[in-house]
């Protein structure tokens, strides 16, 4: 006959072994938990913020944030490209893995991934909301009054810019083509921009822009409208520092890409007085550190220093 005592003892030992094995398998995940049982997101992202190009306004501001916040002491800002950052964001969201990025809107990331949030910035390093301004070289109003008037009257919404960026990204269509389509589909808006603007015959004008999708969207929309009034338009994408230098020195006629009061503050102040500020062309822009909603964290100060 089978010994019942041996059966009970054997079952107990097997249960203990299975418990130990399960605990061992879960040890990697548990290492990312804090003492309270919550995920240690700082450790989970290896104390690293996924960013974009060196020299970009948000890159410079994030470097300041790392110095100002004790919670970011010892952190690394991974600088590469906007495309690389978005690839990593998509991969993380697909797997519901933690990630912290340098985010801003207008950007198609918020249209494609609506469940994203900015981390609170109690020290105000990133500011609140941003304006995107139009700057013109000195003398443009006298030299090319119709171009100046159109640029001065240009204003649109965050949703307009994001819709162009998202369509270009999802369809693989060049932003210039999507911008042309947008202009054709919004005659009432364009009519406001061109009110009182006379047609010209081939007058040349150069718009200086950054190579990012947001600024490519605005530059190409305005370029298309200028062309409809007879201008010969060139759009030149350059590094953000060169944008301000070009307008200040008169090497370009205008830019629609000045983010204020935080993102491009240093560049603006360096050349202030050497260009004409035409005011905002878009309001409600924002920059900061962004995470997916599934991350149970709300503030930069909820993070932990690396040392």
From TrEMBL:
Originating gene: gbuC
Compartments in which it is found: Cell membrane
Lineage: Bacteria, Bacillati, Bacillota, Bacilli, Bacillales
Protein name in the entry: Glycine/betaine ABC transporter substrate-binding protein
Species this chain originates from: Lentibacillus populi
GO biological process, one term: choline transport
Gene Ontology molecular function: amine transmembrane transporter activity; carnitine transmembrane transporter activity
Main location: membrane
Top-rank taxon, per record: Bacteria
GO cellular component, one term: ATP-binding cassette (ABC) transporter complex
Keywords: Cell membrane, Membrane, Signal, Transport
Signal peptide: 1-22
């Amino acid at each position: 006959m089978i010994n019942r005592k041996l059966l009970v003892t054997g079952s107990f030992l097997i249960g203990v072994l299975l418990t130990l094995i399960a605990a061992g398998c879960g040890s990697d995940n548990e290492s990312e938990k804090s003492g309270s049982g919550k995920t240690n997101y700082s450790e989970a992202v290896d104390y690293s913020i996924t960013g974009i190009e060196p020299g970009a306004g948000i890159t410079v501001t994030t470097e300041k944030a790392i110095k100002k916040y004790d919670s970011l002491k010892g952190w690394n800002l991974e600088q590469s490209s906007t495309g690389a950052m978005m690839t990593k964001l998509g991969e993380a969201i697909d797997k519901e893995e933690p990630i912290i990025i340098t985010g801003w809107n207008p950007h198609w990331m918020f249209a494609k991934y609506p469940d994203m949030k900015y981390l609170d910035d109690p020290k105000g390093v990133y500011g609140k909301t941003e304006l995107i301004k139009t700057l013109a070289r000195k003398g443009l109003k006298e030299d090319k009054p119709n171009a100046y008037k159109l640029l001065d009257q240009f204003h649109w919404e965050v949703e307009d810019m994001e819709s162009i960026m998202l369509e270009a990204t999802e369809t693989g269509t060049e932003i210039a083509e999507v911008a042309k389509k947008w202009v054709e589909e919004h005659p009432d808006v364009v009519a406001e921009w061109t009110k009182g603007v006379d047609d010209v015959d081939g007058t040349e004008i150069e718009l200086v822009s950054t190579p990012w999708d947001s600024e490519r969207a605005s530059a190409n929309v305005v370029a298309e409208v200028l062309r409809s009034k007879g201008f010969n338009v060139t759009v030149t994408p350059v590094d953000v520092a060169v944008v301000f230098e070009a307008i200040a020195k008169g090497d370009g006629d205008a830019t629609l890409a000045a983010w204020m009061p935080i993102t491009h503050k240093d560049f603006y102040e360096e050349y202030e007085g050497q260009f004409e500020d035409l005011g905002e062309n878009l309001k409600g822009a924002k920059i900061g550190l962004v995470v997916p909603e599934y991350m149970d964290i709300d503030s930069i100060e909820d993070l932990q220093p690396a040392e």
